[in-house]
Amino acid sequence: MYIFRKFLISCILTGFLLSSLNCFSQTLPPWQPDPPKNWYALDLKTDGYFGVSLSQAYQFVNGLKSKPVVVAIIDSGIDTLQKDLQGLLWVNPREKKGNGKDDDHNGYVDDIHGWDFLGGPGGKSDFNETEEEVREYHRLQEKYLNATEASTENKKEYAYWVKVKTEYDSTLNRARTEIRQLSPIMNAMVETSGYIRHALKLKANQTFTKADVEHLQTTNDTLLEVKNLWLIAFSQDVSTSTNVKVIKELSEYMAKLNNSINPDLEARKRIVGDNPDVLKDKPYGNNVLKFSDASHGTGVAGLVGAIRNNGYGIDGVANNVKLMAIKAVPIGDEYDKDEVNAIHYAVDNGAKIINMSFGKKISPHKEWVDEAFRYAASHDVLLIQAAGNENQDLDVKPDYPNDTFVDGSARNADNVINVGASGLKLDENLAAIFSNYGQKNVDLFAPGVKITSIDNDAELITDDGTSFAAPIVTGIAALILEYYPDLSSRQIKQAIMESAAPLKGTMVLKPGTKDLVDFTTLSKTGGIVNARTALEIASKMKGERK
Fold first, then answer.
1. Residues 233, 246: contact at Cβ < 8 Å?
2. I need a surface site. Which of 121, 341, 521, 535 has the fewest CB within 10 A?
3. What superfamily would CATH give domain 39-91+119-129+282-539?
């Protein structure tokens, strides 16, 4: 979705008129065959794809016994009925299902498989949110919009307001610009899908795929331009992607942009009922883990540990995990309060590894989140997070959360791994064009382009993103802990980091640019995680876990 919209927007910005559709006939990308569905698990030397050598990893531990590892997925929720996850979901041993009571007295009623920190009474969930800078701008504008530093007593809060306003102005301008650009594209996509269906002799309710469009033969100039438009729309998708998926993703993205311009600032209060600026209040949320936005979390969970070798869906990276579902990530930015409570919930309920797919530009309560990171460290819990998809240098402009603590007590914590996204081949596209990077603040890269995983309702999804790269690393971390349960989170991180051999001399396109840079300049390790190497390194360590 991210690359799809960027490509079309760039087409408009070059000065072409959408109404003529000429830009699409002049900017067609070269055709690329679909990669293997499991390319990210493959081995560069054996298979030609820069995957994580997963088969070789399992050969290394063949004959060894594994122990189950609880992995928490802090994300958009999980489809708990997904066939490829059956038997893998964490079950709270102290809670009785469906009795409406808090049997284990942890403040969460019937938290059988996890908890929804966006939930409220009546089984509802606040999963449509706006950006943090938008929320903070509206919270503070009455106090500071007409103020100056000289007229303000609270200099620290005023400086924070200036940062908020800067980010808000940028977000608002981008949202307005992209809405203006994308609206005619959306109209064109909806209108022209009928032309394609008619040419393919499909019924009104039938979909068409990238492969269908590629094989469409025509000499009609108008239909040829429409075909080219759809080839652009499908350009970053696999051949099985449908027109309905493309239009749905574009529609969802436009709705997200509109929520920046016209935010529903009362949704949290109306649905959840708590105060997100008060950490220590009464328990909140509900136990409903699947809503319409659970696709992302389901995909992440599948990559970590979907049932292997069952002939269905995908094979997860790890083969002996229990997946704890924690819903705290809306469409939009998560709240600091939910991040904190989600991490505490995971740690308190036995998770040893936590996968986190979130990130934002503003963190109003970063000290709360820092405390949660420290809490995880004190319980020897490994945190693995996605670096983000804004092709920005995190050494220059940080994302939140991060492990550079406000009080200066930590930087580059031993129990935190920040993951960028890599491409399919050892070529100039090895660093994904959308991935954030940073030689100090991104630890390593992992496959994150055209990644196929499970989806809601027995479907599959193929998508891009650092949030699909991170669970591959999480799966490797779980695999290490399964077979070497005495290793601490620090040691697991060390094994993973050392497995990412620096690719010095490999020149790649710097994300978001046409500049060639050495791959080693984009992350701390300068390499891509390797499951086989990580297990071998781990096998030589003397365990520190208490």
1. yes
2. 121
3. Peptidase S8/S53 domain (3.40.50.200)
